[in-house]
Design goal:
Elements lengths: L2 H26 L15 H4 L6 E3 L16 H5 L5 E5 L7 H12 L13 E7 L8 H5 L5 E3 L14 E3 H12 L2 H12 L1
Antiparallel strand pairs: 1-4, 2-3, 3-5
Length: 191
């Protein structure tokens, strides 16, 4: 290698070292921002603004049931393919009920067959695939999906991040307690 070229290369290397040490020295004496988790936790006020994995919003009438109407807009909007929603099937009719419907149709009467419930049978979510883009939340017609504020999500395998959001919604409702206790709180907030 040319001695002149080697000299300038050495100066360039030293200059980048000096710049790096200046940045390190600048932040070395400042207050630490990192939170050392089990010894200290994040302030709950900051936790409210955190956008974690998605979760279902409970129905106002029954907190164990989601507001979801199984329209599958979230599934079609998700670019990551991390949402699986299975619609509920219509209830099975007894042979007598089926025969009564057939007889009524034969007479020319209009008969309303029982339809499937709107609530989903399954609502699965794979957080390990999710890019947290929020497209599913924007696409939801009834605002039944939201970001959770859960900071401390850990696992030892990919399966730990596959959630059944219907079961999660039910367990959250059980933790909050009976519905009768939550209604007075809502009334006092409105007043």
């Amino acid at each position: 290698m040319n001695p002149i070229k080697k000299f300038f290369q050495t100066i360039a290397d030293l200059w980048s070292l000096i710049v790096g040490l200046q940045i390190t020295g600048k932040y070395f004496c400042q207050r630490q921002v990192t939170v050392h988790y089990p010894r200290k936790e994040i302030d709950p006020e900051i936790n409210k603004t955190y956008r974690g994995h998605i979760e279902l919003v409970a129905s106002p009438k029954d907190p164990t049931k989601p507001k979801c109407i199984s329209c599958l807009m979230c599934v079609s909007a998700c670019p990551s393919g991390c949402i699986t929603v299975v619609k509920s099937k219509p209830p099975k009719l007894s042979p007598e009920e089926e025969q009564a419907i057939k007889d009524a149709e034969a007479r020319g009467e209009k008969v309303k067959k029982p339809s499937a419930p709107k609530e989903p049978a399954q609502w699965k979510y794979d957080f390990s695939l999710c890019s947290l883009c929020g497209t599913c939340i924007e696409a939801c017609a009834v605002d039944s999906i939201q970001f959770s504020n859960e900071l401390y999500v850990v696992g030892t395998s990919r399966n730990d991040f596959k959630y059944d959001l219907l079961a999660r919604l039910k367990s959250q409702a059980e933790k909050r307690g009976p519905v009768a206790e939550s209604k007075p709180e809502a009334e006092t907030k409105e007043a």
